[in-house]
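Late entry, written up from scratch paper. The run itself happened at the end of the previous shift, but nothing got recorded in the book at the time, so transcribing now.
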Amino acid sequence: QVQLVESGGGLVQAGGSLRLSCAASVRTFSGYIMGWFRQAPGKEREFVARISERGIRTAYGDSVKGRFTISRDNKKATVYLQMNSLKPEDTAVYYCAVDRTYSSSSDPGDYGYWGQGTQVTVSS
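Output as recorded:
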């Protein structure tokens, strides 16, 4: 069983930065592909970023490329999302999850063990 706890969300002005963290309570954290997703009110859950088990390969959604950076610290069993140049359209609840298919998927349906999410609000 994997438990994920996100933190670091908050209210920030457009152009600002935030760093989200996702702490995992599992000893085999280094064996999981991890992903970040977000969901705005009335919208479907959207892929934001994912990172391979050792952090060598990353991928990003088109809307965040060049602004967001995903990273991980396997010794701390934590994955991070550095968000720069934030825009009001980045406002959403951000979730981390485990890729249960080991296929480097961007489909939220392939992910599990979702955390409770952390709210990010970007004001204009």
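The longest strand covers residues 92-99.
(Scratch paper discarded after transcription.)
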